[in-house]
Amino acid sequence: MSTSISGSGPAYIFLLMEAMIDAGVHMGFSRETATVLVHHTLLGSTKFAMETGEHPAVLRNSVTSPGGTTASAIYELENGKFRTVIKDAIWACYRRSLEMGGKCSQVGPNRVSTDSLFGVGSPMSSDTRSHHPVEPPTGEMKTKS
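^ thats the sequence. predicted structure below, dont judge the formating
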């Protein structure tokens, strides 16, 4: 199950980064500048979330002024079903991992260890994940008809 979020998660984040960088270039930034802006935005946001321990909704609301530019952007994301698309992608990954017999959670020649992405000893490394068992989902898995 963790593969659906942490194993494949970097690909989701990289896709978000691509979209943000491409939007920046379309707005007139050089690709290099847009990339630096996106890197620092994601790094700073993640660091802030980890340091505060606040729920992401609290953090999002704290940086969103009513009627402001961020509120307009959030409206577009919500109107475009951003959350639903992300959740559906994670469930698709989970279903595929079940079809594959859970094999995609293993590190292999064509896979990247989360240790190399996050560093051994980080909350995402394999040496700490093993101490935090994941409970299986309860109830029926939601599928698209």
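DSSP finds eight helices and no strands in the chain.
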